[in-house]
Amino acid sequence: MGATPSTPIATQHSLVSAAAGSLVPSTSPGSRSQPVPSEPALRYDPEQLAKQYRGRWDLVLRRLFQLVSPFVGLLAWIFWDRWRGVELKNRPKHAARLRKILTELGPTAIKIGQALSTRPDLVSPLFLEELAKLQDELPPFDNQIAFDLIESEIGLPVDKIYRQITPNPIAAASLGQVYQAYLHTGEKVAVKVQRPDLVGRISLDMYIIRGLAVWAKQTFRRIRSDLVGIVEEFAARLYEEMDYTQEGHNAERFLQLYRHPSIYAPKIYWDYTRTKVLTMEWIDGTKLTQLDKITAAGLDGRHLIEIGVNCSLKQLLENGFFHADPHPGNLLAMADGRLAYIDFGMMSTIQPHQRYGLIKAIVHLVNRDFVGLAQDYVDLEFLSPDTDLTPIIPALEAVFAEAMGSSVAQMNFKSMTDKLSGVMYDFPFRVPAYYALIIRSLLTLEGIAISLDPNFKVLSVAYPYVAQRLLSDPAPELRVSLRELLFNQGQFRWNRLENLLRNATNSEDFDLQGSLEKALDFIFSERGAFLRERLVDAIFSSPGSQTGSPAQPTSDTMEHLQRLWELLSGNPTFQPMQLFPVVAKVATKPEAQQLGRQLASRWLQRSAARLIRDLLLPDAEEPSSTHSRNGIPGPTSGGQRATTPRLPLSA
Q1: Span of 48-57, 299-308, 592-601 with lowest mean pLDDT
Q2: 461 neighbors 450 (Cβ within 8 angstroms)
Q3: Surface-to-core class of residue 495, CB atoms within 10 Å of its CB (0-12 exposed, 13-18 middle, 19+ buried)
Q4: What is the rounded distance in angstroms from the CA atom of residue 204 to the CA atom of residue 64?
Q5: Strand partners, 492
Q6: Beta strands 162-165 and 176-183: pairing type?
Q7: What distance in Å separates the CA atoms of residue 189 and residue 650, rounded to the nearest whole number?
Q8: Residue closest to 269 by CA, chosen among 154, 107, 119
Q9: Please, what is the Cα angle at 192 between 191 and 197, to 5 degrees?
Q10: Which element (helix H / strand E) includes 627?
Q11: Residue 194 belongs to what H/E stretch?
């Protein structure tokens, strides 16, 4: 939305009686209490739609013809141009025609076009550019209809609601159009008004599209995705988007969950909000795709995208309430450097077991544990529990090994999904409905990021967040994932812990002090028994060296501990003195005392062994075997210690 001068409200707008059941606004402008809407909240009900349209073949077939015939004509034009050898020359005209068809077909088709405009994996760049115009270059509807709707919904004349309002809309979207206005109390607001007869038009379209999905699923056996479920998920979100009171609730919930100095969402003015009219705070800002304007304003586009990526990760992996439509028109860079979300019509949720399942999949990907990754797809409902994973595991390994190269952090999300789609086609994968919206959200965000910085890697920004979640979240599911990441066949991988800490400290939300306190509490609890046992082994053994006194922790261990201390002490939030009360409390626990006895026992055993060896075999040389007691390569020739493999993640 750009700042446009407002004009006084025309006085000819007359009071239209409120619809039956509508409420009189409260006398307190901008009150936080939401009035009861004049009609029930909209909910998608396929059975109800089937009852409504079953038998009305004239209406259904006429609309089906309207939906199909323009695309048949476009395809015929493309094939004709291809036969004449002028397809490439006329491709801009084809793309413009597609956009015009979607615009003429109405809101449902426009929404589908908007979704395609963020899928460079499905649509060529020329068509993407044209479809992107569907985000904010749509024809408006008549202003008089809009003003009459405002009056009928709110129950007051327009000039009694707003001191000023633009005579024409500032922007037109798929479901409505937006005016800039001023309340009588002085606040600048955006007034969103719904298109006429929207519910009826979308209901008929979704009835037809769902019927086509059912037919396609039954006809084409190769379609294993839950096509009907995906359509129903899309329809459910679309119906919620048509209820502007729901959008207002979504905006407030979003700001409550993701409140941050760098994130902003507009205030909702409930006194002037109803099912078909939404009044919210006006946000002045610049689209993230307008790089020249962002640079001219002295803003850092890459930093704004990093804010968006981290916010999306919190949405998907922490709270589960996520923005399912983060296209460029819905994200604005504010003059003070904050990132503003301005449209909350299409939101979705992801359940806790799905969130933890995604983090587990990331850990298995980092570990290159493709057996575990295949099982993750079962847990996330991509594969049925009785699926034979034997042929799928090497296929996943081939896909991710190529996509990852030498670094997980450098992996391109789009390239990964492109290659994974082939595996899903060859094996009995079915795409859950919730996953389609997640992929759309992430691909859209990555597309915006790449438009700002072609070298931007979403996963390199995402890993610090994942690292801090693994180190700080006490959830049992994540403790298991942390254990899998840090231990390999019983051996503690110090380099993994170092990289986790290094990446976690790059996350501004990482509470180092709190995480250390939680870690101590966990280690010396019943659930930490496994870790305590491995901790003793890790301190007195090293996979890469047998040098140093057997009575002491090995030199490798001391080097790792020293590097960890340097990482901790280099963090400005680390206050060692504040840990003393926690350590004192932990020291009284039986588990801590048992660990102390184990460490003392291991030290005495090593000391006794060294003393006996020195007395009985004074001339014995240090073992020079190239293998440790665990069969892992030890020192190389010349006394040089073998380099411990480093985790291929961004430091």
Answers
A1: 592-601
A2: no
A3: middle
A4: 10
A5: 487
A6: antiparallel
A7: 43
A8: 154
A9: 140
A10: none
A11: strand 188-194
Q: What is the pLDDT of residues 582-636, one digit of tens each?
A: 667 667 777 766 767 766 776 676 667 666 766 666 655 544 444 443 333 444 4
CA 575/CA 509 separation, integer angstroms: 17
Do residues 638 and 544 touch, judged by C-beta distance below 8 A? no
CB atoms within 10 A of CB 34: 14
Question: What does R_g of the chain's alpha carbons equal in angstroms?
Answer: 30
CA distance 343 to 526: 46
Report the relative pairing of strands 321-323 and 347-349 from DSSP bridges: antiparallel
Q: At what angle do helices 227-241 and 198-219 cross, to 10 degrees?
A: 170
Looking at residue 318, the DSSP 8-state letter turns out to be: I
Neighbour order of strands in the sheet with 331-333: 263-264, 339-341, 331-333, 286-287
How far from chain centre, in Å, is Cα 180?
A: 31
Question: 3-state DSSP call for residue 302?
Answer: helix
Kindly state the DSSP code that residue 160 receives in the 8-state scheme.
Answer: H
CA dist 3 and 181 (Å) reads 11
Name the residue among 420, 431, 409, 418 with its Cα closest to residue 370. Answer: 420
Alpha carbon of residue 171 to chain centroid: 27
Intra-chain end-to-end CA distance of the chain, in Å: 39
Token output for 242? 């048509």
Q: What mean pLDDT comes out for the span 45-59?
A: 91
pLDDT tens column, 504-519: 666 566 565 566 666 6
Q: Determine which of 32-41, 398-407, 520-529 has the lowest per-residue pLDDT on average.
A: 32-41
Annotated catalytic residue, options 226, 271, 325, 473: 325
Do 164 and 179 meet the contact criterion of CB atoms below 8 Å apart? Answer: no
Element (DSSP H or E) covering residue 391: none
Catalytic (active site) residue 325? yes
Residue 202 is which amino acid? I
